[in-house]
Amino acid sequence: MILSDIASGASIYPLTLLRSDRDLTKNLQQRLTILGFSPGPIDGIWGNKTQAAFDAFVKKHQLKADEISPKTAQLLLPPVVSTPPPAPQSPPPPKPPVLPASLRAIASGTVTWLINQISTNPGLSRAVQQSLDILGHQPGVADGIWGNKTQAAYSGFAKIYQFNPNELSAEAALYLLEPPVPGVAVIRPSKRLVDSDYRTIAQSIGCSVAAVRAVAEVEAAGSGFFRDGRPKILFEAHWFSEFTRGRYDRWYGDISSPVWNRRLYVGGVGEWDRLYKAICLDREAALKSASWGLGQIMGFNHRSAGYSDVQGFVQEMHDSEGKQLLAMFNFIKANKLDRYLANLDWAGFAYRYNGESYWQNQYDKQLANAYSYWMNAA
Fold first, then answer.
1. Which of 53, 155, 247, 248 is spaced 20 to 30 A from 109 at the CA atom?
2. Of 194, 175, 176, whose CA–CA distance to 185 is shortest?
């Protein structure tokens, strides 16, 4: 037994039992010597000097002289120094983000980049220049060099959407790639048609739900939104020329033409680039010159679609396919075509909705077949 065994236990040992324990006596002598009590030689023999030294120790600490208790052993031993737990290591500083290689990657991220960071990357600078050029902001040659013209063009773009002209955020990058109508939010994901939309329209028109579904299937655009959440549109350059009295025909012939020209169509989401460029010239004329959503209702037909102004019409066309389909059927009702749906007169409806050549595409038969399908599916 040694002192640490007694110190860590709960038992009190009479001194008479411990004096014959040479290991304990030797341990005790070592500690008394260190503490300055002079027990004589450290030989494990409990003699008079050891006894006198022990008596002096217990007297100093007001302990009992005929025993060694855990407290006595603890005072004889060196104090236990508690080792503090290791300080938590600070995490390494985060690595600075790496500038992405493309506008699309920036648009998909969360980091806002300074323009002086973008300008050091010729590939990104060229991509921004190309987008600005498509959108009509005239950044100069797309050479990957961010000069004064490029900065002026980007500042013009940033002003329209209230971006910081000295930064390129994820949203700004997205708008360079997919420009929305300024001031009109793009809803993602798009709200698709639901059964209640068809019922609401059927009640407003006074026809069957199957008739509404038939017209939507044959005459509507299939989906009212592009995958990026913007409404499907087709920009009509001849209407933009009409509404702006031809003042942009000479310099902006790709979006303003005195006559209809099939070659001006870009198709798909590219039509939005044409619309954006026109909006920068004349917002109201541009919005009126595009067809919108499922029914591809022209903006200038906003009153027939149930809206007092084209801005409100465009706002609602961004909201849902249900709003788009309602606008389409408001237009049908305003042009007194609802009675043909109520009477299931498919030829009469197709003649007035698709024109005299409706029979070439058999629109009347397509409508009748779709109606029959939806009646049986109900």
1. 155
2. 175
